[in-house]
Write a structure and sequence with these properties.
By secondary structure, this protein is mainly α. It has nine helices and no strands. Helix 1 runs parallel beside helix 4 and helix 7 runs antiparallel to helix 8. The protein is elongated. The chain starts with 5 loop residues before the first helix and ends in a 12-residue tail after the last helix.
Length: 168
């Protein structure tokens, strides 16, 4: 598609990270009554905000020629699939922390992080900085989910049913 440029890649990536931030904010509302879960969801939401800022900063540094370069079609398809994800719809179906964990795990292993890693590697020349960014933005981010413990405990932590109606 002619619109599949690096600029479009950034735009879709920012949109996907924003949806992820909204999702984690919703999980924070659903599990705010549990300090352990609330801490994880707040950190994940905050990480997504940082990802959006990072993407916007990198995009702003690119030249018009770089922005108009063609984007990898497979990445674009993957991002478009991720954008079919509706945070509100998923949040309505979450019964317990185990459900939340599985959706978060799926989201974190989606094309969102593949594109973020591509951007880090493609647009940061300093190898030491690239390594720190991958650790900070991707590896540490995914490791946060481990703080949610095992499946049996996660199943025992029920979602707050009235949290669905709270403003985001």
């Amino acid at each position: 598609m002619p619109e599949d440029t690096i600029d479009t890649l950034f735009a879709l990536s920012i949109e996907a990270e924003t949806a992820a931030r909204e999702f984690y904010g919703g999980l924070l509302r659903l599990f705010g009554h549990n300090p352990r879960a609330a801490r994880v969801w707040e950190e994940m939401r905050s990480d997504e905000e940082e990802h959006v800022r990072f993407l916007k900063e990198v995009r702003a540094r690119l030249t018009p020629e770089q922005l108009q370069a063609p984007a990898e079609p497979e990445m674009m398809r993957g991002l478009r699939n991720v954008l079919k994800f509706s945070p509100q719809e998923v949040l309505r179906g979450i019964r317990d922390l185990n459900d939340a964990y599985h959706y978060a795990h799926e989201l974190e292993h989606s094309e969102i992080n593949t594109v973020l890693e591509f951007i880090i590697h493609e647009y940061h020349i300093d190898p030491a900085l690239r390594a720190r960014l991958v650790e900070k933005y991707l590896q540490a981010h995914v490791k946060r989910l481990l703080a949610l413990g095992g499946a049996a405990w996660r199943q025992s932590v029920l979602a707050n049913p009235i949290a669905d109606n709270l403003p985001g």
